[in-house]
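SAMPLE LOG
Freezer: B-3
Tube label: C17
Construct: single chain, 588 aa
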Amino acid sequence: MNRLIRWIVLLTTAGVTACGVDGGDPKPEERDFDIPVTVNPQTCPGGDCVPSTDEFAAGSACYPEGSRRCAADIDGYQVCLKDPATGVLGWSMQTLCAVNLTCVAGHCIDGDCEDECNLGGRRCAPGGFQKCGDTDPDECLEWAPAETCPQGTVCVSGECLPGTACQDQCVGGARECAGSVVYRLCGNYDEDDCTEWSDFVSCEGNETCSGGQCLWTCADECQPGDRRCSPEENAYQLCDDHDMDPCFEWSYPWPCFGGQTCSKGECRDECVDECIVGHKSCGLNASVLVCGQFDFDPCTDWSSPAPCGSGETCAFGACEPLPPATLQFVSPGSISQKTATLSVTVTGPIAEVAYYGDGLHIATSAESWIGFSIVHVFSWSGQWELSAVGYDQQGNVLAETHRTVVVEGDTAKGVPEVPYFNQCANALSPSDTSQNTSVAMVLAWLGWEGEPDDITEVWGKYNAQTPAGLAEVFNWYAQQMAIPQRLHPHTDGSLAGFKALLDQGKPVIIHGYFTPPGHVLVALAYTDDEYIVNDPAGKWDGVFKGSYADAGDAAAGDHVHYDADDFEAAAATSDGLQSLPLWYHEIK
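STRUCTURE (predicted):
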């Protein structure tokens, strides 16, 4: 597969009508701009960041120095260079790409190689860290040779941080589902001494995820070792695992020859009655068997199983209503650690159980043989209102139960209390700084005391409009704050992965088509029907590529609730219908 590059220069304005603009923070498009800029960078004399006295001269045609773009008229590129005499930044002469190379985002790309990583990414390596860039003769991205962390520091999420202190994210060896076909494992996947969750892994084929395991979705047709006569021809069949799933099924028919007929699953000269005509019995999976003449010999045999209806079971050869469905919590009570097993006892035709904490979905289990149990890592301490809801095979709610538990610890309880900023209150570029405002909200949640204009003044309004650029801005401030958290962009995400991050009790910055060109906001939590977000533009009208009629209300977007279907259409589709990989950011 040829290399697919999404180095996207997302430079535009936000679609917030009340802010008096027309545009937004785009998600998928690549655009070229020649915009004069004046930037006041900072310098670091004596360990302090102070404004520099130098300015990029007004009238510059590009920014920053060294940036690249594809040429307009040829398959080539231009570089942003500074005039030594005037300090003005301008585009260089066009440089033609070599034969078989194509310009993408200002770089001549070899179509035969693939990226190993995302530009600007970092990861830990033995004894140090690695950066992602173009470090060899081809045009693709790869991990550079490892660099050693300074003495007294350790690599955490690609950054060299003081000391060795870290905190386990989960219990080693634990597994959890992040949707019906996705799971992840708990282990030590970096250079610190603590555990963390692995990347998401997809189940294969007909498998679905339950309790962190990928299981085949099938049902036994018979018991191993059973024999029967084929209902369609004079032949017998054996019960075993004859295909790729783990369930048992009947083999292909083995014909009887030499005048023999199949009776009781064997080829015989004379047949033997299996049962008394008219008698009934129960088969597998709540089905009824009737005794009669159903094959090619003159003797009696059992019919093929006739399944009972929904909400019924077979007893003594007849379908009878199941007892009323009930659901009761077995555990937990008080929880001394944030990792606990949730389980229930059930009666009736309950096929799966969904667990909720304070109204937010935790996980769903179909493992009836272990009490529908799950292992859950609670994201915060304090009192929790747990619910378990039982469903039948058709997805109908049959029963539910509730329990109050207390999780010990010292973190905040409930939906993460992320401070809110409204971008229309920004002094600098209020209409097109949803990305900087979202970064400011999450930084403030981690203890930062700044505001969105501080980010725009230093970084401008364009850098954070790409996922990689947004993470770069956030991580720069996190490093200045000397905190371990870093932002990791995902540009091929799924709804299951996105919800799994929210399940950790952390805010998630996400890009989407909330306006025609795109918009960035901070997701906080979700229920079956809604998403709770901090929307920097106010309250969205719920329309794909819609608008913000009340953007001028300073608190309209503070912990606002959006319909789940509307939100997912804006964040996970290209036109409201066709799926599109999600763009969101993971804090870890």
